[in-house]
Write a structure and sequence with these properties.
Blueprint lengths: L4 H42 L2 H12 L5 H8 L3 H13 L3 E5 L10 E5 L2 H20 L1 H4 L25
Antiparallel strand pairs: 1-2
C-alpha cells in the first residue's frame, strides 16, 4: 500500500460529487426545457403564454389565489386577475371562495381543469376550423364536397383511463 491512497480516495469522492452535481444540473435543465415545451404547447391551446403559465402553475398548485399565482409566475397581479377571469368564463379553471374564520375579504381559490378536459374543450373549435378549410371551395363557389359531406373531419378524444 502506498501513501497516496487517502489522496486517491479524496479525489474519487470529489469526482463523484462533481458527477452528481452535473447530473442534477442536467436534470434541472431538462425539467426547465420540458416545462417550456409544455408552456409553448399550452400557449397554442390557451391562446397566450400568460394563460399557459397560469394554467401550469394552477396544475402544480391547485387552490391558489390570484396573488399567489402572481408570485408563482412572476406576472403582474392585474394580468393574472384578468387572465383568470377569462379562463374561468371559458370554464378552463374553477374557483371557490377561500374559507376564513376572520373578518375581511375571502379571496377566490383557483384550480385548473384536467388536461384531458382541456383537450375536449378545444376539439370542437379545431374540428370546425378544419371543416371550414376542407369546405372552402364549396363556400367560394368552386368545386368542392357535396352537400352530404358537410363536415369531412371528425375528431374523437378518449381518456386513457377509459381504456383500462
Amino acid at each position: 500500500m502506498s501513501g497516496d491512497e487517502p489522496e486517491d480516495e479524496a479525489d474519487s469522492l470529489e469526482d463523484a460529487e462533481d458527477v452528481r452535481n452535473r447530473l442534477e444540473q442536467e436534470a434541472d435543465r431538462a425539467v426547465d426545457q420540458f416545462d417550456e415545451g409544455i408552456v409553448d404547447m399550452l400557449a397554442w391551446v390557451l391562446d397566450t403564454e400568460t394563460r399557459a403559465r397560469i394554467y401550469v402553475a394552477l396544475r402544480q398548485h391547485p387552490g391558489s389565489t390570484s396573488d399567489e399565482l402572481a408570485d408563482l409566475t412572476g406576472l403582474y397581479p392585474s394580468t393574472v386577475r384578468e387572465a383568470l377571469a377569462e379562463l374561468h368564463e371559458e370554464r378552463k379553471v374553477t374557483r371557490e371562495k377561500r374559507e376564513s374564520d376572520g373578518a375581511g375579504n375571502n379571496p377566490y381559490e383557483y384550480s385548473a381543469i384536467a388536461p384531458s378536459e382541456l383537450v375536449e374543450t378545444i376539439v370542437g373549435d379545431v374540428q370546425a376550423e378544419l371543416n371550414t378549410v376542407f369546405n372552402l371551395d364549396a363556400h367560394l363557389g368552386g368545386v368542392g364536397p357535396t352537400d352530404d359531406a358537410e363536415d369531412p373531419v371528425t375528431i374523437s378524444v378518449e381518456d386513457a383511463t377509459d381504456e383500462e
